[in-house]
Amino acid sequence: MTLTRREALGLSAGAAAFLAIGTKVSFANADATEAAIMEFTGGATPAEGKISLDTPEIAENGNTVPVGVTVDSPMTADSYVASVLILADGNPNPAVATFHFSAISGDAEAKTRIRLAKTQNVVAVAKMNDGSTFIDRKEVKVTIGGCGG
Amino acid sequence: MATPKPRVKVPKKADKGEVITIKTLISHPMESGQRKDKKTGELIPRKIINKFTCEFNGQIVFSCDLDPAVSANPYLQFNAKVNEAGTFKFTWVDDDGSVYETEKNIKVN
Question: Do B67 and A97 touch (CB under 8 A)?
Answer without folding.
Answer: yes
